[in-house]
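Hey all, quick one. A colleague (J.T.) asked me to put the iron/sulfur cluster job into the tracker so the inputs and the structure tokens live in one place instead of scattered across chat threads. No bug as far as I know, just bookkeeping. Sequence used:
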Amino acid sequence: MKQPANQSQSASLREEAASEILILSGGKIFAHNITPAMARVLSQLNPTDAAMRQRAEQQNLIQHELPN
Amino acid sequence: MEVSDELELMPTFSIALSGCDLRCDFCITGAESWNARAGRGFAADAMAARAEAAMQKGARTIMVLGGEPTIHLPAALELVSLLPQSAKLVWKTNAHGSAQARELLDGMFNVWLADFKFGNDDCAQRLAKVSDYIRVTQENLLWADAHTELIVRHLLMPGHGECCWRPVATWLAENLPGVKVNLRTGFWPAWHARRHNELQKAITVAENDAACKLAHQLRLNLIA
Ligand code: SF4
């Protein structure tokens, strides 16, 4: 039986959702499995984080995002 | 493609195999890492093709990780046999494999990214339900340092600066001087961390500072 569209969409989203973030009430942010796109977002949230900026810059080394 | 691991290995194409031989209650990937059947079936040839495509797009390394990849050793070795010689391969491990497993891995990976999680057997038993942790892990780290490029990771756990980080850091300074060490301070109370009172919170600023101070006192070669 064909899966309803919303079910198959959420299954494929689960497979693609590689990063996880946790924001504590004090504003501290934890992240793991950081993709280049997520690194860019995190770097914009805290531009003073030099290590995250370096991770975000890795995007430039990657020609295109790969398909899953 | 990921950029969250050690900067010198990034960007990496990471291949995560489910299942692990340890049972760390704070495991951030517990659902997959405690269940070796989680995820999709693994086809070494298809994965090798994807890894090669990632290299062409700019991946600096191919990283095989878990859970603990050693429990899937035949599949991991088959994958390596299908990858080009030029691929820089990283074996991300909890460093708790057997002597037989490490002999089979000899020469297969360019870098071992290995955890040294606990500073004593009691914490290892209580938090990860593993016995004889220290002896096995130290033996593997010494072997890895002698046979490949080694990076050691320690996840700083709240309340475990003295019982775990201090002995780990001291042993590294004495036995693997100059080895690259990544002190991870982003502990978050994941999975079953709530089973342990001290693990229900993040690292405090004071704990973070004390851990870094110790690393500097011992002249550890810290990397990010
Ligand atoms: S060794 Fe790593 S993957 Fe395995 S249970 Fe512990 S934290 Fe999870």
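Adding what we noticed when we looked at it: DSSP finds three helices and two strands in chain A. The mean pLDDT of chain A is 72.
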